[in-house]
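User: quick one, fold this
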Amino acid sequence: MEEIRKYFEKSVSMSDRDWELFSEKLIRQKFSKKQFLIKSRETENYLSFIEKGTVRFFLDRDDDFTFSFSFAGEFVSAYDSFLTRKPCIYNIQALEETILWRISHEDLRTIYAETEIGNTIGRLASEGLYLENLKREISLLTETAEQRYLNLFSEQPHIVKQIPLKYIASYIGITPQALSRIRRQIF
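Assistant:
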């Protein structure tokens, strides 16, 4: 739980009182490998911080199109659904045993109203989610598949051991066969 406070305090100091009010609303939840955090057509009720683990975001298609990952030390949510209170169109699934610290939509609204730092907490979490998505979009528009793979590998070196290559291939926008060729050329 202290990792969340450290995350926020990179940008803003937080009083012990505000931290206490916020942290008492957090729920620690464990997900087993392949367990869903949320399925398509469900409404997201939580903003979560990953203490341990990796999750993937994917669309229900024949090829289960993976379009994002989130890792330990990051926020995760079907954030569009969380904000609009409408069902999401994608799934979020644990790729390994994953531990989350979660705050419900209702409890986050309470934090906004009752603490001095509440709105800043919400803003920082949403900015983190936004920046990760923007980084991915820019990568798809400006980098080759090989560059995207190397960037992912350098930023998250453990990923190759934990995530099936078909998910990585989908994430960087290529077929598993093309990823195999890239990996042979690199290694």
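User: anything notable?
Assistant: The first strand starts at residue 27 and ends at 31.
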